[in-house]
Amino acid sequence: MPRKTVVIFGALNILWMVFAASQAFKIEIFPESKILAQIGDSISLTCSTTGCDSPSFSWRTQIDSPLNGKVINEGTKSTLTLEPVGFAHEHSYLCTATCGHDKQERGVQVDLYSFPEDPEISFSGLLEVGKPVTVTCLVRDVYPFDRLEMHLLKGDHLMKNQEFVEDTDVKALETKSLEVTFTPTNEDIGKTLVCGAKLHIDEIDFKLKEKETTKTLQVYISPRNTVISVNPSKRLQEGGSVTMTCSSEGLPAPQILWSKKLDNGNLQLLSENATLTLIAMRMEDSGIYVCEGVNLAGRDRTQVELIVQVAPRDTTISVSPSSILEEGSSVNMTCSSDGLPAPKILWRRQLNNGELQFLSENTTLTLISTKMEDSGIYVCEGINQAGKSRKEVELTIQVAPKDIQLRAIPSESVKEGDTVIISCTCGNVPQTWIILKKKAETGDTVLKSTGGEYTIHKAQLEDAGVYECESKNQVGLQLRSLTLDVKGRENNKDYFSPELLVLYCASSLIIPAIGMIIYFARRANMKGSYSLVEAQKSKV
Question: How many CB atoms lie within 10 A of CB 536?
Fold first, then answer.
């Protein structure tokens, strides 16, 4: 055989042997190149061979990190189990199989994700009509969260959509959420709220990478317009009966609670029915009854006061020493009132505008060192749950007259025929009598005055003189006086002047003198002579 043929044959034989050997020893790995595992799950990587009866296997990571798994070799197969899968397992794993001097290797990439639960929907509070509320759509333990997208729907309306695209090198499970604040309305009652989340990883099955949660909106209306109707009346006679009915609006329909307010302010529960009936009423049944409408959104209350009448009566006031006092003295005023329960005593003083000024809650009201300003009307009230009864007393504080003013208007010196007013006033002392008099030696004349004034019309000379004012009350008196001068008229001056008076007197002497001269002259004629001296002597 030619040498060339032998060489070719030998080469073909070697190639055949190599091919046969390669077909005899082969390695495979499953999954073939990549697996996407959910954190917390369990996965198995399987390495198997053919063409070798007793291969040896080894596993390692591409970066020589710990396997953090369990290896089981069974004949021509080796299994690496990772349980539970965590961030320490996110590597490329290599399986090496050795058969004699022959060695083969295969690798698989393990990638991780986490999307274990459906989204959660929560609210910041109850969904009350007219009150803002925040709804939160939340997804827990997401990885990788930069591939997460979330949306929130109310009915057919998209409220919010958000993609979480921030970059991070940190490997960790994240909880992501989106929030929307809205104000519920009546139209929201019965609508559905949908929270959806999607992880954008193609290798995940559709059912695993998209999740959503649906919740029907439970919208509340807090109780309102709570009202009470009372039949027959809120004021009752002892032994009578009363029926009180309460209603309240809200969603869901409020529960009705009846209570009675105790003296310490606490509420004593009486009934959970809308209607409360009380029979054979006693005085102890008087008080404040409270109705509350209650649901999950809140509560609304209203109240009514029932009075079982045994009202105060026969309210009396005793004053010691007297209701009329001198300024500076003291007085005790004691009030009593009958009724069940015993009435509370309340003292007030009536002001000028008619309002009542609170003074005391004691039975006895004491005033010390009284002044004129303490005069007035004092009111005592007996009060209990059934009503009130009142009594009044007028206190008078007397002050002696003072600050008397006596004037002549327009002046203390007037002319005959003028009008003059004699006026007397006495400060601010109440209940003071004013008496005007004209003084004279023959006796005083009491003048008919009005309000302390006496008017002289067309003054005459005889109106001149001393006028006196006497102001007095039960405590004392004061006197004032003035002198009024009335001058004669100006047009009478010519008739009563001094010259006219002298002329008048002279004329009254001349006429008798002339008569005497004529008389003695006639006698002289008869006797023949006449001597005035002699005549006077004989006269004497």
Answer: 11
